[in-house]
Specification:
By secondary structure, the protein is of the alpha/beta class. Helices cover 35% and strands 22% of the residues. Flavin-adenine dinucleotide (FAD) binds next to helix 3, strand 15 and helix 14.
């Protein structure tokens, strides 16, 4: 009874003393490792913690020099900015990460071409949004494989904005964040997990009872491997498998697309932003690019802009400075040119350009997650946000890590 309370809902709270990464490295080279986990994102860290709690010898191999993958909290502006996942709902993951949930937007506003909508225009926008939502739903029900962007072509700017935001709606709710940042909480969650950094996996050989892992830094071996690489990275052919992945799995990987999402945080001198705190701004810039923004989040003199779809791709492709320039121009259109002089700095993500992510989150057809989750030649298991519902979220990454850890435990019994 007491033990059950200690383990907690996800069975992760018990964390025995972990051997140092160097010691485990030796074990991994000799092929005496129970489980090698590839990728130190949330899925990999979750699987590692669960296996360590079950006293298994585990080592995570990670190509970057940090843990967290597509969760990262940047502190360069003097306050936490999540450049990856930022929204988290109350539930098992939030409980496991700890920290306080932070309320998101409290008021909503709209701006078209830099001009805030009047109350009447906002009401008209709401109506057009509802009509657009119904039209999209009808198309998706009648023609599930059709691309709605090819079938609906809204003409009015308000309709265009409503349509764009509906089509690019993310798979997670944007209602609550985490005090201190989701990325920082994930980094804390995985801090004790043994990780070999700078280790890019190139190939798996599971033709023998011990699985071999090939990297430029040498070969490793383990009884079981859990692969948590993004579907985009697995699908681009740079990671090899012997024997080859089944045709079904390769088809499922090919069917996954990556959403484009760009987060830009800009900070300003005190009182420069004439807006209530925690205001959600949706708009079209004068150049016609759709955006959303949290203005003065948690009462800070800052704005977090969120771009998706073609808008995110356009700014990411335009180079490293384009994000700051877009943020400043777009916000100056809405809040006035004086804002430019009050600009202090900005940070932005570029996940589509990151070869270890190749995009923001997975979007897969129904059922793809189950195919991607299925083991390969018995001892190579899969986890990650593309292998569980709701696909493309930190909740899916977490759930998949727990599931793969349980599969590994069953194989090691
Ligand atoms: C801008 C943005 C905003 C988002 N917002 C939210 C949100 O608010 N809420 C939400 O629920 N989700 C959000 N997401 C999605 C969420 O971040 C991901 O679904 C989740 O973090 C994925 O976790 P993962 O462990 O499956 O993959 P990852 O975090 O990508 O982990 C995989 C790891 O594998 C490593 N790797 C890659 N290739 C190799 C290799 N060859 N060898 C070794 N290591 C390798 C990578 O470096 C990475 O650390 C967002 C994503 C982005 C990009």
């Amino acid at each position: 009874m007491r033990r059950r309370r200690l383990l907690g809902a996800a069975g992760l709270a018990l964390f025995p003393q972990v051997a140092a990464a160097d010691e485990l490295l030796d074990t991994a080279i000799k092929g005496q490792l129970d489980v090698a986990i590839i990728g130190a994102g949330l899925a990999g860290l979750t699987a590692a913690r669960s296996l360590i709690a079950a006293h298994k010898k585990v080592l995570v191999l990670e190509a970057r020099d940090r843990i967290g993958g597509r969760t990262f909290t940047d502190m360069s502006l003097g306050f936490p900015v999540d450049t990856g996942a930022a929204w988290i709902s109350a539930g098992p993951l939030a409980k496991e990460l700890g920290g306080k949930l932070q309320a998101g937007a409290e008021v909503g506003t709209f701006a078209l071409g830099g001009k805030p909508l009047t109350v009447e225009q906002a009401v008209a926008y709401g109506k057009s949004n509802a009509q657009m939502e119904a039209a999209i739903k009808e198309i998706r029900t009648k023609f599930p494989t059709a691309d709605v962007s090819q079938l609906l072509h809204p003409v009015q700017p308000a309709d265009q904005l409503a349509f764009f935001l509906l089509v690019n709606r993310p798979p997670f709710a944007r209602e609550t964040g985490l005090e201190g940042g989701v990325g920082a909480a994930v980094a804390k969650f995985g801090a004790k997990v043994p990780v070999r950094f700078g280790t890019k996996v190139l190939r798996f050989n599971s033709t023998q009872p011990i699985v071999e892992i090939v990297t430029p830094a040498g070969n490793f071996a383990a009884r079981v491997v859990i692969v948590t690489l993004p579907a985009s990275v697995l699908g681009d052919g740079h990671v090899g498998f012997a024997p080859p992945l089944s045709q079904k799995k390769r088809d499922a990987l090919a069917a996954v697309t990556m959403a484009s999402s760009l987060r830009i945080a800009a900070s300003f001198r005190p009182d420069a932003l004439k807006s209530p705190p925690n205001a959600w701004l949706s708009g079209l810039s004068r150049a016609g690019l759709p955006f959303e923004a949290m203005v003065r989040p948690q009462n800070r003199d800052a704005v977090i802009l969120m771009l998706s779809g073609y808008a995110a791709r356009q700014i990411e492709e335009a180079g490293a400075n384009a994000a700051a320039a877009f943020a400043l121009t777009t916000l100056a259109e809405v809040y006035g040119n004086d804002l430019r002089a009050a600009f202090l700095g900005s940070v932005a993500s570029r996940w589509a350009r990151d070869p270890l992510a190749l995009g923001a989150w997975s979007v897969g057809a129904k059922g793809t997650d189950a195919v991607l989750a299925a083991p390969h030649s018995e001892r190579v298991l899969f986890a990650g946000e593309a292998t569980a519902e709701p696909v493309g979220t930190i909740e899916a990454a977490f759930a998949s890590g727990l599931r793969a850890a349980n599969e590994a435990k069953a194989l090691l019994r």
